[in-house]
Amino acid sequence: MNAIANPNHADGNTPIDADEHAQLIPALALQRELDEFERANITEARAWAFAPRVMQARQPLDESYLRDLHRRMFDQTWKWAGIYRTTEKNIGCAVHLIRERIGALFGDARYWVENATYSRDEIAIRFHHRLVGTIHAFPNGNGRHARLHADILAVKLGGIEFTWGQNNLGAGPARAAYLAALRTADGGDIEPLLHFARS
Fold it and tell me: Which of 38, 40, 62, 67 has the most CB atoms in a 10 Å sphere around its CB?
């Protein structure tokens, strides 16, 4: 049995502090229970996001959508769902820069779309990389949120969802490949992350 001591202890996950951990909504004792509960919450959010009326009415390159998507992904799991983090982490920008960096990301992404600066896949993947790696806006769920947001953006731009290695990214070789591609993108080379997203 694996008790929920720190639900983010695996490689590449951002540790949450005791106050954030205390905001868990359901009474769960085991890590696998938390994983299953979050998975069900995310499945509901995905159905909402890809519903035709939402795809038509909502703009994914909008700050309120970013927060709303995270809230819907984790609102049955964490009280801080959809709320920007207030503690410093081992990844991402300083807390006081989150809103500024998100604004800049949306400005850049809108420019990329309007000027066809990159392919639609590359726009979505560059957006994903900056959101999860350089900003890391939320206490937890940033990778899952950024991947779903990239999927939505790709579809909104006329493409299809990414496959993200076609595996569970919770552990194993697919997660290792994903983290390696993110680190390579940190150094300025987006190609491995683009390739992984479609593998």
Answer: 38
